[in-house]
Known about the structure:
Blueprint: E1 4-7, E2 16-19, E3 23-31, E4 34-41, E5 46-49, H1 53-61
Antiparallel strand pairs: 1-2, 3-4, 4-5
Amino acid sequence: MSKTAQFKPYGFGQYCYVVLDQITYFEPxxxxxxxxxxxxxxxxxxxxxGAYPEKVREAIEGQD
Length: 64
């Protein structure tokens, strides 16, 4: 079963749920006074989350 993680939204919105084993890479992102992380997935899509890259890395490394 795939592990998921919940991240706060980038800017305004609802919390985001991410399937961790579908992440290919991620990078810091900042615009208009907001900072977060841009996450890229296997299917070619991406998602902006309000968590810093360190939190995304912790979520990935924390999965069993």
